[in-house]
Design a protein that fits this description.
This is DoxX family membrane protein. The protein is mainly α and 87 residues long. The chain is 80% helix and 0% strand.
Length: 87
């Protein structure tokens, strides 16, 4: 479980980075969220920070794993949908 904890820390740091350097996340965020990208960068940062922190402790790890799986699937679906949609 040390690997999951380390991944949680990395995800939490990435989430916090959305607020410290939002422009770094703009190119990838535009793929899934072409409209209102700046707001979605913050929302995704908050989500990744929360999920990352959930993965760091044994008590919340299962919920964090489920949340991370759902979040990853949702992001993938949003990206795929927006790649098919005409711009």
């Amino acid at each position: 479980m040390a690997l999951v904890r380390a991944a949680g820390i990395a995800l939490a740091v990435t989430g916090a980075a959305h607020f410290a350097a939002p422009k770094a996340f703009e190119p990838v965020s535009k793929l899934a969220f072409p409209n209102d990208t700046d707001a979605w960068i913050k929302r995704n940062g908050a989500t990744e920070l929360a999920l990352g922190l959930a993965l760091t402790t044994r008590k919340t790890r299962k919920a964090g794993l489920v949340g991370a799986a759902v979040y990853t699937a949702w992001l993938g679906a949003r990206t795929a949908y927006n790649r098919k949609s005409p711009s």
